[in-house]
Design a protein that fits this description.
Helix content is 77%, strand content 0%. The model has no long low-confidence stretch (mean pLDDT 95). The radius of gyration is 22 Å and the shape is elongated. The protein has one domain. It is mainly alpha-helical. The protein contains 3 helices and no strands.
């Protein structure tokens, strides 16, 4: 896989037409949203596993503060 410096990528993008640049922006935005969505889904699975394994602290604010002071 070929790698490019950030400046080289910017130069390539600047050579694109305005329409191509807009499409690229949309594609990158969509991919970032999908990536974040996948990260959130993994966090949910992890949290559910921790909850099922009894690894989640539950209590009042006072309980939490007392636990943090330990």
């Amino acid at each position: 896989m070929k790698t490019y410096s950030f400046d080289a990528v910017l130069e390539l993008v600047e050579e694109m037409s305005d329409e191509e640049q807009m499409v690229l922006i949309d594609l990158i935005g969509q991919r970032l949203k999908e990536k974040r969505r996948d990260e959130i889904a993994l966090n949910i699975v992890s949290a559910e596993e921790e909850y099922l394994n009894g690894q989640v602290f539950r209590g009042t604010v006072n309980d939490i503060m007392a636990e943090l002071k330990r």
